[in-house]
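Ticket #156: bound-state structure for fe (ii) ion.
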Amino acid sequence: MDRIDLIRREIDTVIEQIPSPAVKRGAALHIYGVSQLCALLASRRGLDVELAIIAGLLHDIYRYKAMTGREHAHLGAAMSRKLLEDLGCFTKAETEAVTGAIYYHSDKSERHLPLDEVLKDADVLQRILYDPGYKTGTWERSRMERLSEELGLRLR
Ligand SMILES: [Fe+2]
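RESOLUTION: The complex was predicted; output attached.
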């Protein structure tokens, strides 16, 4: 089993435990949508696609495990670090890259490392592609404008 599949198996067990069918469907769409958009953006920006996909798969692990968005980025980074270390097939640098992106992904009005920005952009983009009526905040709008220009889209 490759490393992406290992992570998919882990996150699928989290999704499976969500009691509400509607929330479960939303979680699966969001997690897999974000991971695919991470692949697209990482590929476009010349970054590590595998790590981007893994960051996308794990970024809301705490949110869906604890069913709360409170502090979910920081707590999810810690939870993901433990998971990646336990799996034993990620280097220290890879673990840092993935958990760093998860740690900062709620700080969308700030700029961080390239992989961190891929995850933040993918997180916002998935919500807008899922619901074009999604009301973006000011910080999301400027991120969307940059993304629209980069990808040649007319998102807003
Ligand atoms: Fe998310």
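RESOLUTION NOTES: Residues 3-120 form a domain with the Hypothetical protein af1432 fold (CATH 1.10.3210.10).
TICKET STATUS: resolved
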